[in-house]
Structure formats: C-alpha cells, structure tokens
Predict the 3D structure of the following.
Amino acid sequence: MTHFDLETIAKRANGPVYVYEASKIHSQYQRLKNAFSGVAQLKINYACKALSNISILKLMQNMGSGLDTVSIQEVQLGLEAGFEPADIIFTPNGVSLGEIETVAKMGVQINIDNLSILEQFGTKHPKVPVCIRINPHVMAGGNSNISVGHIDSKFGISIHQIPHVLRIVENTKMHINGVHMHTGSDILDIEVFLHASEILFNTALQFKDLSFIDFGSGFKVPYREGDIETNIEELGEKLANRFAEFCKTYGKTLELAFEPGKFLVSQAGYFLTKVNAVKQTTSTVFAQVDSGFNHLIRPMLYNSYHEIVNISNPEGRERFYTVVGYICETDTFGSNRKIAEISEGDVVAFKNAGAYCFTMASNYNSRFRPAEVLWYEGQAHLIRKQETFEDLLQNQVLIDFKEKVEA
Ligand SMILES: *Cc1c(COP(=O)(O)O)cnc(C)c1O
C-alpha cells in the first residue's frame, strides 16, 4: 500500500479508526504561513486540544510550529513530544492559581484571563512575564457554545476592565509581555475580525513592554460543499499591513501569533467505520455503523455536519440514508444523506474528522476508544492502539463485599 488507501487501513484495523493525512496538515500550515508572509515575526502555535496525539504534536514541532495548550496535561504532552517550554503558550480558562504557577515554573508562557488570578499571580511572581487574554466583545459566528467573545462569555478580561488591569500592573510591578484574544471558532467576516483586532491594538498601546500580540484563532474550514471558508489570504494581507503600521506606532516590531486548531487538522482527518446493519423503517433507511457519539460527538453536541462517503462502493448508485450509531440513545451522525449504495459490511468515512473528534471520544457504553493512524510519506503509521478490555478496567476498583446486600 503506497497510495492513500483508506479501505485497506480500515480493513487492517480491528474496529473504527481515525486516519490523518500528514501532507494535508503540512499544506494547511504552509498556507497559513504564506498568507501571513508579510508579517516580519510570525508565530503559529498549534492549538492541540483539536488533536493531541503526541505524534501529531511531534509533526507540528517538525514543521516549526509552537504549541497552544489549555491544561497542564497538554503542556506535558507537548514536552513529551519534544517542544521546548519556550515554544509553548498556556491559555487556560478557569484553572487554579496553582496549576498556572506550576506551568509558569516549567518556563512556559502563561496567558491569564481573569483579574483575580492576575492580581494574585502578579503579587507572588512579579518577575514572570504574563500575557493577558482580552475579551473584545465582538461576536464571531453564531454558535453560542463555540463563540467566546460575547459580553457574557466566561472567556477573557473585558476591555472595559483594562483600567483595573493597569492598576494591578502598577501595584504589583508585574510584566505584561503579550495581549491575546480568541473570539470564537468561526471567522466568517474578515471585517469583523479586523474590527476586533483594532480593539486589541488599542489595548496593546496601554502596555509599554510587549513582545507579542496573539490573535487566537477561529479560522473556519469548509465542512460541506458551498460552506463559507475564512479567506486567510485576504485576511493575511490586510492584517499584515495593519500590523506593520501598528508596530510603527508602538515603536517596536512585535511578534504576531496565531493559535489555529481546526484549520490545521480538520480536513486531514477521516473517521472510518464499518456498517453493521442497514435497517429499513416505514419512512427511513438507516445505516447503522460500528460506532456512535462515544467516538465522534460533534454532530450530536454541536449539530455539526460531517460528510459521509461509502468508500467500499464509491461508484454505487446514490440513495438516501440516515447514518446512526450503536449507542443506546439517539446518536445520529447525519440525516437523509445521499450516499453511494451501502451494503452491510461496507466501510464509510466521515470527513473533517481531524479536529475535536478523537480528542472528545469517550468510553460511553463501555466501548473502546478507536485507534489512530497517521498517513505519512506513503505509509500508514499506527499512532494509537485501539483500547482493550484491560484499559476499561484499568482504574476501576472492585470491592470485595463481605455479605450479600439484602434486597
Ligand atoms: C480552542 C482554542 C483555539 C483553537 O480554535 P480553532 O477554532 O480550533 O482554531 C485557539 N485558542 C484558544 C485559546 C482556544 O481555546
């Protein structure tokens, strides 16, 4: 097998499997770099909550990416994969002061999004440089679960509270070395993004000793035909020009950072699973796959659309199917989809399965989490084994009840 052959990978796997195409991750990374080639100092920090397998992290590191993390465990995975602490930024929300202190001690750049924590951290560790996460109160996209810039969002320090931040900085003599925003997961309108950027620039001018400005992420990728995609080339050109202008005003060339997750890995991923049964009801033909929302929760959680194709019969006549899983509650992957005729045993592929798919998988219904495979330079590399029954039992403790519990 030297060409990218999903069916062979699916047949070799003993159950559902995630497959990631390294070349697609690489081309997305290059595309982003090229789009922002007008920026003198560009830093791309891969947001690893999207897909955190350590081989993926290593691949990112080899490409020259930094790492954006949201938990101390993600920081540790990054170090395990070979990142230097200086190439990691920690952007948590709602974690303890203790966790932030531990990560800061490792030499990782920390990003604080809460006034109370900022004050406590600055008081105890005035010499450790800190980035602050601003909430510019600009809505990006429409999904309130993944839009994090609105007025009542739990993310970021409100721009209306900057005077309070400045007071804390003055009182503690702490060093703010970066300002950050991450407005949400969908940048659909470049003008809206640029508007939020202006707010960030205005904030940045109030801090005299910055070394970077971090614009977060939110690059939208297409999930289905006709989807609007962030025009990063246009964004790159406009923001690069504006950033250069800003740096002149600021009096220093700053680094411009981004933290893309979905953009880098979504389209590189395929989730492959077998069809267990085709079931006809009075109104619908169900294709029941050997998986469920335990493995891919986005359709049920966010109502996301993942294209589903029958890779065992790609040329087959198209028919309408509702693709569901085996979980003992409703777990619909896609309703009324036109898919090449499905027979029991066929392998279907879910597209855009690179971001927030495996990382959100669980053991619900006591199923194993799937294997992961990286397709790299013409070969399939197993990067995570499918779980086993021992894994399910791993941390469970079976109590030795002395007496039978009376009914
Ligand atoms: C999740 C997250 C990202 C990545 O968002 P994508 O939409 O996957 O690109 C970036 N920055 C922060 C702080 C995040 O929490």
Notes: The mean pLDDT is 94.
